[in-house]
Amino acid sequence: MTSGALDGRGARDGAAAIRAAAWRFVLQRASAAVLALCVVVHLATIIYAVRHGLTSDAIVARVRANPAWPAFYVVFVIAAAIHAPLGIRAIVDEWLGLRGRAVDIALGLTSLVLFAGGLYAVHALAA
Amino acid sequence: MSAATESRLPVRIWRGDANGRFERYDVPRHASQTVLDVVSHVQRHVDPTLAYRYACRVGMCGSCAMTVNGKARWTCRTHVDAVVGGAMLEIAPLNHLPIVRDLVVDMAPFFDKWAAAKGAFTSTSTRHDDFAQVAPASAKRRAIDATVECIGCGVCYSSCDVVGWKPDYLGPAALNRAFTLVNDVRDGAGIERLRAVGGDAGCQACHTHQSCTERCPKHLTPTASIAGLKRLVALAVVKRRL
Q1: What is the pLDDT of residues A59-111, one digit of tens each?
Q2: Closest CA to B170 of B145, B151, B198, B191
Q3: Within 13 Å and on the Cβ side, how many CA atoms surround A70?
Q4: Which of A8, A23, A90 is opposite residue B195, by nearest beta carbon?
Q5: Residue closest to A110 by CA, chosen among A72, A75, A82, A76
Q6: Whether B89 contacts B69, CB under 8 Å
Q7: What does the alpha-carbon distance between residue B56 and residue B151 come to, in Å, rounded to a whole number?
Q8: How many beta-carbon contacts under 8 Å exist across A and B?
Q9: Closest Cβ–Cβ partner in A9, A94, A95 for B202
Q10: pLDDT for residue A8
Q11: Nearest-Cα residue of chain B relative to residue A29
């Protein structure tokens, strides 16, 4: 039942690889849902700031005054660091035919760079 | 209609293997003529070496699908009028499958993927058991109604961009078949089938372009079946059952 050339990919890929693919899908969708909310809040904030003529100093002051803003942007950074490499993984697979461990390591590093860079930006804004 | 006043239809038909070319033919134009009628005319009256495949001629067997003016269609139920506005008719083999010759493709990769998606029914009972009772109005049986009429023509597979980009992707027909069996309460493959369709080349690779649903001659919705599999695979991995 789990052997033979025509058997399921599960048999060929191994249960761990199947679970990893399924988790990537779940994380991609969950991070997309978080990003959808974050982007709406982010854009609404930008539009509010522009329409009310807030200076950059005033924006920074408001962000620092309320810890909810840095917390919000940390969530934003985490979601982006998860979502972007998973999307790039599908693109380099389908368009360039690149896959395998080296690609996954490179994309893991991409995720870390996005996470670290994002946290650095939030820290610089909030501290 | 006399031969002198007979209306003619210009046709370009693919000849040869993947390195072949289109050749031009002129065939008599008739009312209610199907694309398969055109191909058959060329094979019977112009060039008997033309290779093509058909069987039932009534939209049941799924063997006559070809690429007609750029889109995969079942040729026995496609009227020339529906695809040609007085212009050239162009007939090519299905996309994404190896060309054997002319309009014949090798369907083996297509059906290998049905097997890879565990498209075979896995019985949980024996001949000694009584008939299974499946309520026609039950949710799972109604879900099967929406998927079970697939004739395996390969139109969805040939129309799918993801199959073109990612050749090991199982494709809409195999995944639609897997979803049919997932909803079959008599089937025992369960989590094994979700594993078969849950890898990188499985249901998660679908981009929901819906070309399969747009082109399916039986008006099935493989996109919905694939979405159903995505939900089940995601739930299974979150609940640690995958």
Answers
A1: 889 889 999 999 999 999 999 999 999 999 999 999 999 999 999 999 999 99
A2: B198
A3: 15
A4: A8
A5: A82
A6: yes
A7: 12
A8: 74
A9: A9
A10: 41
A11: B234
pLDDT of residue B144: 96
B166/A94 touch (CB, cutoff 8 Å), yes or no: yes
Please list the alpha-helical segments (H only) found in B59-100: 80-83
Taking the domains of chain A in order of start, what are their residue ranges?
A: 29-126
Question: Within 10 Å of residue B223's Cβ, how many Cβ atoms?
Answer: 22
Closest to A62 measured CA to CA, from A126, A123, A119: A126
Tell me chain A's radius of gyration from C-alpha atoms.
20
Q: What is the pLDDT of residues B57-80, one digit of tens each?
A: 999 999 999 999 999 999 999 999
Q: What's the gap in Å between the CA of A113 and the closest CA on chain B?
A: 25
**Contact list, B112 vs chain A (CB under 8 Å):** 6
- Count of residues for chain B? 242
Residue B183, number of CB atoms within 10 A of its CB: 22
Tokens representing residue A67 in the block: 């810890």
Q: What is the pTM of this model?
A: 0.90
Tally of residues, chain A: 127
Can you tell me the ipTM of this complex? 0.85
pLDDT above 50: residue B84 = yes
